[in-house]
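Write out the 3D structure for:
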Amino acid sequence: MVRPFIFPQSDLQKHLIALLIMYRYMKIIGLCGSAAPKSSTKKLIEAALEAAMEKGAAVEYINIAKLNFKGCLGCNECKKDQTKFCSLNDDMSDLYAKLNEADVILLGSPIYFGDITGQSKCFVDRMYGFLGPAGSKLKKGKKAAALITQGFADETHYPIAAEHLTKGFVSCGADILPPEFFGGLHNADEVTDAQLARARAFGERLTE
């Protein structure tokens, strides 16, 4: 299987991705809010990114659950300067810039206790840094979509989770694409071929 083009991993990949952006290839970032060692969320996001890459998109996978950032302090420093995002100096600093470079953001989270993971919610709260004194700092034309995994088999059971996951992008003016839910999953080994095919189709739609 061809692996997704997940960068940066080398100087060559950094150079290639710079060329792709220069010639305006679509860039898609997949954000995973699962810290599980055998994550079904990660597996499905990578499948979606792989399919998007095969359609010509430049893609990047980031596990936000393994980044070092805290929750919003509520200090409102972000509201004082349209060119700055947050008073906190942590891994979100680089992520703000990456999100502004992307055309599409795919956000994935498993369901923990009936909602998105704590790491995912922390990320959503820090999206507040995109709101400044003159409005949204998120560049116009962004699209965002949610990918939800859950142990419960009924995939219609947690629609609110997708809304929570994309709430930050709604507030910042992005267009929200229809989400995808994958039920009956407790680890990556339980992902079925049919679910992988659905994730790939999802990834292809993100390039449209």
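Residues 40-54 form the longest helix (15 residues).
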